[in-house]
Fold this protein.
Amino acid sequence: MTTLTENAIEILRENDRGHYTVPTKGLYPFQWNWDSCLTALGQRHFDEARAWTEIETLFAHQWPCGMVPHIVFHKHDDGYFPGPDVWATGRPTPTSGITQPAVAGFALRRLYDRASDKVAAEARVQALLPKVAAWHRWFYATRDPGGEGLVAIIHPWEAGRDNSIDWDAPFERVPTDGITPYTRRDTQHADPAHRPTKEQYDRYLWLVEHFRGLGWDTAKLHDASPFQVVDPGFNAILIRACADLADLAEGLGMTDLAAENRKFAARGLAAMERLWSDAHGQYLCLDRVRGELIDSASVGGLLAAFCAVPPARAAAIAATIEAHGTRFRVASHPPADPRFDAKRYWRGPVWLVVNYMIADGLARAGQEDAAARITASSLDLIRESGFAEYYDPITGAPLGGGRFTWTAAMVLEFLA
Ligand code: DGY
């Protein structure tokens, strides 16, 4: 009988394109930013050198301004929309023009701390560290122009939680008129009932065309976007990455980078308080255009536990997850909310990468039991339903793409 570990390694090898890994065949045929960083954490269990390469390939496509794009289009593939011609970012190897959660700093630290070949790890981390630091600097310079300590996303794809209920209200401001007619490809690979709607896609595309019209000048896009949302999960990942990078830099004698990232992390952590909601027992998104918290208790506000939030906040988050009451945790939206949809992408389903980061953060905050329950539930899902992209939190049914890379990577981490 093949074990879960063997299955996971087989999926990671199958989706490996040599120096980068595709999230899954068909639906996502290129390199995605946060997928790659989390994938490396799985690869380290059977090929440490290959794990470093995954992140190095991503950073080889960093923009001169410091941004690391959310997709690198290494090879032509017309099975995905929007492709490089729609983005038209003018990069030597085509990339998208928006970014994704800054999980790289955390991934570097984990790879380094747990490396068996410390000499090789040190050389590779030393080369990557200034690049990751440049990305962090870019975030705070362009996405926090008011110096609040928290960055905004300007497109839902940046959060990775594409169709979260969190974006419904601010998305009302994004028009759809004038967009170039298009054909979706995602719904040819996955069940349309499990994917974002056409109306959401129209808005995703409007934003892309709007930013393209501004020549992808990343210094201008934040202020020019009708969609500016401060997502607690996105910020928590960045804050954790800054703190992890600071520790790494300190150990390697890179004192300036350490001090800079320490400052980003401390400021960000203090500013997170503004996003806390006692009523929901979690953090909420802030609509920066309106200056108001968004009344939607999605998983981004639980993922905030990934950074060093105060212990009482972590305890409240653990209790909120418990109160969801779903058989499988962590639902990406609370089932008691009438907007919850158990099968539609980020409007209810469980995602293993999010589980991993929440469990890691809760364990660090002393909530070991809550963390262990998340890990056990994640592995139960795999045993019952295989390595899917995401899962119905009530029935455990597998949803979206199959033989999914980052799901497999997380299983190797959960089993370690
Ligand atoms: C998609 O196409 O579904 C991605 O999430 C956007 O990068």
Q: What stands out?
A: The chain has one domain: 4-415.
